[in-house]
Structures are given as structure tokens and as C-alpha cells.
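Contributing new records

If you add data, match the layout below exactly. Sequence lines come first and carry their own label; structure lines follow with theirs. Keep one chain per record. Anything else will be rejected by the validation script.
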Amino acid sequence: MSGEDPGRELLRLVPHGLYLVGVAAGEERYLYTASWLTQASFEPRLIVTAVRREHRGHRLIREAGAFSVCFLGREQQELAHHGFTAGGDRLAGLAWKACPETGAPVVLDCLGYLGCRVRGWLEGGDHDLVLAEVVAAERFREGELLTVADTPWSYAG
């Protein structure tokens, strides 16, 4: 035992995939890396993700009412890092298309994506939860999901 807060230690054991979330509100397009996502219902197909309240993505998802979730392959740590750190136009230099159902940007060099429409929000602590219905999905290629455990990063606890 490290002597650290046991709750923090245990929450860091929860597996977290790494995803690029795309959102389009009006003429504004944005892309960021997320790790808190889970399926919440089979019928209808619903997911839940968490977005930091002061994050640009939070404002844009509220405005757009829709977003995309691009699943990153295990070898795509650099692309995940891009979604954390790139300034300005985060889509510059990336091959992408707009999700036909939502208009949200979809990075083509990923395993596949979900197009999602917001069904509701739950205010939390420093992050709010977004409940969204999956309205589109496309698989581009096979591969294993990149997880936080595959990286030197930590975003839990």
C-alpha cells in the first residue's frame, strides 16, 4: 500500500478507454480526448460521458446537443495526446468527416465512432454527466481499444 488515499487508489483501478470526442456547434468544430465513458442502456442504446464544467467541449456539447465518440486503437497514444494538448484547430492535419446524423467531426484514423444526441445532463462536481443516445455508428477497422493503463497518464481518483 502506498499510503495514498484508498478511494483514489481504487478508482485508478477502474479501466478507462481513451476516445476523441468531436463536436460541431454552428461553424465551430472541436476535438478533445476523453476517458470517462460507459454504456447505460441497450434499448434505446445510451451512453454516459463526463465533461469538465469549464471545458470548451462542455459549452459546445450544450450548444450542439450532439457529439461523436471516436474509439482509439491501442497504438494511437500520440493521437490521444493530440486531443489533450493541441492548440487552435485540433482537426488541422487530421483526416476527418462530419457524422451525417449529427454534424460532429469524426476522425477517420480510429477504430470507429458513435454519433450521439444528448438526452440529458446531470450536474456533478467538477464534471457534469451527459446522457446521450447513439444515433449512428461505423466501424473503420479492427483493433484493441487504447486505455489509460496503456499510457503513463492517470485521470481518475
